[in-house]
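Quick review question:
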């Protein structure tokens, strides 16, 4: 574990996956169908995580494909304004298009409409990851959405291999989007192989169930699968349970953490905010448990603001937040599926 944290201390990251645009109806609380104006923000897991890391004072390069049009140019230029490196954002022509999400800033009857037909980021291939500077990168962060199709699937597996050969940590955010997969069985096969090769694995209970091939069986199956990864390549596995908190597995055992309760404006962005904060925390020398709490604070701030990338907090904002908020203890109701934990 000390070796892992030491490797991350250089604070240089590569984020691989999708980036696109989020349109948010304005003002907050407006339904999509009632909107007369929208604000535009960077979206997509890999893009959001890269922005989160940069806002935490880290260096981050994004590896993806963007469409050869005004939307693709908007995406890379906005990322550059944040300070994210876009050298490895390859432009692709034809009918490929950047992802667009139209997402509301409200909780009640929340709506998000996602456009991913012919997604440009799925065009990422092994050539895109061959020339990355793995030797001078402390961790490669992989978005699991890219595993859903070829050639980006092969690119993710190749990036894991190259990162490990160079002594860089491979980190995966499972980021399962069922609409991108042909079947749950295919997702189980691909995810289980990918996470088995990574040093840090982060996902929620549904995502670990998918990787475990759990199709309606005991909810314990996904949890047991998460725990089993520690006996292989993984040094840290974070099993997230939404409002109930998370369980972190390491070689020294498991630890439960609650969440910071806030008046959320929207449900989206928590996962990307958590991962960005968690990795930044580890790179600053925090223990795994401290980094989990740091990531939880980041997630809480993100869901209380409009959009995702724009909402990512700075270190000063997290420090101010944690001074005024206490993390809730990990607690499950007696009738919860995991109440025996």
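Suggested answer, residue by residue:
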């Amino acid at each position: 574990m000390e070796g892992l944290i030491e490797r991350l201390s250089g604070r240089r990251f590569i984020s691989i996956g999708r980036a696109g645009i989020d349109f948010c109806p304005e003002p907050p609380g407006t339904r999509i169908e009632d909107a007369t104006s929208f604000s535009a923000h960077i979206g997509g897991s890999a893009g959001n995580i890269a922005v989160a890391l940069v806002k935490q004072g880290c260096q981050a390069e994004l590896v993806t494909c963007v469409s050869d049009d005004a939307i693709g140019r908007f995406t890379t230029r906005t990322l550059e304004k944040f300070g994210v490196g876009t050298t490895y954002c390859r432009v692709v022509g034809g009918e490929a298009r950047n992802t667009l999400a139209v997402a509301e800033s409200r909780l009640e009857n929340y709506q998000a409409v996602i456009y991913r037909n012919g997604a440009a980021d799925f065009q990422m291939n092994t050539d895109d990851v061959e020339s990355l500077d793995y030797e001078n990168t402390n961790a490669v962060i992989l978005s699991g959405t890219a595993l859903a199709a070829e050639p980006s699937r092969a690119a993710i597996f190749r990036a894991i291999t190259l990162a490990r050969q160079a002594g860089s940590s491979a980190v995966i955010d499972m980021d399962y989007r069922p609409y991108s997969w042909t079947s749950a069985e295919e997702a189980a096969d691909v995810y289980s192989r990918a996470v088995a090769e990574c040093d840090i694995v982060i996902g929620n209970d549904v995502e670990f169930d998918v990787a475990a091939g759990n199709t309606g069986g005991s909810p314990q199956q996904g949890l047991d699968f998460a725990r089993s990864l520690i006996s292989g390549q993984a040094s840290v596995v974070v099993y997230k349970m939404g409002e109930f908190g998370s369980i972190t597995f390491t070689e020294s055992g498991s630890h439960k953490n609650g969440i910071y309760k806030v008046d959320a404006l929207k449900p989206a962005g928590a996962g990307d905010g958590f991962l960005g904060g968690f990795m930044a925390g580890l790179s600053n020398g925090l223990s795994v448990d401290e980094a989990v709490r740091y990531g939880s604070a980041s997630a809480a701030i993100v869901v209380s603001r409009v959009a995702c990338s724009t909402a990512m907090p700075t270190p000063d904002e997290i420090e101010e937040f944690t001074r005024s908020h206490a993390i809730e203890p990990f607690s499950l109701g007696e009738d919860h599926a995991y109440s025996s934990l």
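Why it works: DSSP finds eleven helices and 13 strands in the chain. The first strand starts at residue 12 and ends at 16.
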